[in-house]
Inverse folding.
């Protein structure tokens, strides 16, 4: 859990973990889970576990994420592109 304090105000951000393997999730992981499983989800899988669940290669998920991002899908920001380039 991360807590930021500015003056008297504070913001607490709970770091999400994959419901399958426990890995810390990125915004890209959460967006992919919402796009491919359920937009209303409150628990998420990492991209690796998601690809295994869907029985597709992780590279195909990356291609689809890039496709949806270019179409303007708000689940994938331009900042997430750096993760896909790795």
């Amino acid at each position: 859990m991360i807590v930021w304090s500015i003056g008297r105000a504070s913001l607490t951000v709970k770091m999400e973990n994959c419901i399958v393997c426990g890995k810390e999730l990125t915004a890209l992981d959460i967006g992919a889970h919402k796009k491919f499983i359920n937009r209303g989800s409150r628990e998420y899988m990492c991209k690796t576990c998601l690809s295994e669940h869907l029985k597709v290669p992780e590279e195909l998920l990356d291609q689809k994420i890039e496709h949806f991002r270019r179409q303007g899908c708000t689940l994938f920001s331009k900042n997430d592109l750096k993760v896909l380039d790795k």
Remarks:
- Residues 1-5, 82-86 have pLDDT under 50 and may be disordered.
- The chain has one domain: 17-84.
